[in-house]
Model the fold of this input.
Amino acid sequence: MNASPEPVGVGDTAITGIDGGRGVLTYRGFRIEDVVAHLGYEQVVRLLLSGHRPDETETQEVQSELRARRDLPPTVERVLESLPEETPPIDGLRTTVSAMDDVARVYPPTLREALELVARGPTLVARLFRQSTHASFVAPDQELGHVANYLWMVQGTRPPPERVRALERYFVLLGDHGISASTFALRIVLSTRSDLASAVSAALGALKGPLHGGAPPEVLEMLDAVGSIDQVEAWIDRTLDQRGRLYGFGHPTYRVEDPRATLLRSFAQEVAPPDRYALARRFEEVALERLTQRRPDQPLFTNVDFYGAVLLEGVGLPRPLFTPTFALARTAGWGAHALEQVAQNRLVRPPERYTGPSPRSWSDET
Ligand code: ACO
Done:
């Protein structure tokens, strides 16, 4: 009898390295602490897509390439206009991404398409948000960088530099994270030689869930439900007794604290109102203690979404934009993974384990 061929998963990647046991995260070999200290988001886009640290000329190139591609094609405008105003921005984003005619609907995706995805995302999300709040559209400002322009288009006022800096760091830290659930979805779709628009729609669908990119708004709902510092212990105990999850804690990869959580703790403090930050700190302290007491053999740690949510609130973004903002940051990684997948493409077929009955006779069944 012939042996079955090896099932194909998605495993090899040269983009982001994660050592979950030691808490080390690298983009193209550079530690995340160095990346966030030295590079802005547009440079990270270039780093993730091309694999090397951009010099001055390449930095200017990627900045102007992204600026030049911010406008939306007419087909997307028409889809946007047809959406009900109450459409949540994350759903609107998923719908309109699949209508982006020149974020190609043909295989294979190209570098140009990856850049278009990154460049147009903020315009789309800002437009969807303003539509949902009956506000008029704010056109992109070519004087502003990628992240500052996003805040400008959402808020309609010039963003203060400390908010731009905080959000820029958030974008850098969320730029990629290996083959997460959403990136896996993207790569599976591309493995069938489908197109980038379809792959990104699938990735957005996976990202939306509260165990993944849907966690940040849940973090704030949780902090609001707690209300005040003196209620933290009772609220956490009650939630865990009822087998509830504490959003912003736990990660399938890390066995120590995620280095992005460490960085975001201090970045969030710079923009969050002091009482919000104090409540978050106390919540974190009690959550870690109680989670460890309950599962001493499998300690859980603060993940990227806990202080990520506090930071997003601190820069003035409304909750319906938390998950879309995570998605915008991740478009850099999705572009890089799309190019990597097609460069080594094989149809993904993960190994499966059949747990049903052994073959049985049709006629014996009554
Ligand atoms: N709060 C309470 N209990 C938890 C938590 C948590 N945050 N995380 C895991 N557990 C418990 C589970 O209830 C489960 O207990 P059980 O075995 O008694 O049923 C056990 O730990 C194992 O849980 P799994 O979901 O199997 O563990 P995994 O490591 O695969 O989960 C996950 C990772 C989904 C992120 C989980 O920790 C979680 O739900 N966290 C909260 C949601 C969240 O913050 N998501 C964002 C993740 S980061 C990202 O996507 C960017």
Notes: Residues 111-132 form the longest helix (22 residues). The two ends are 33 Å apart (CA to CA).
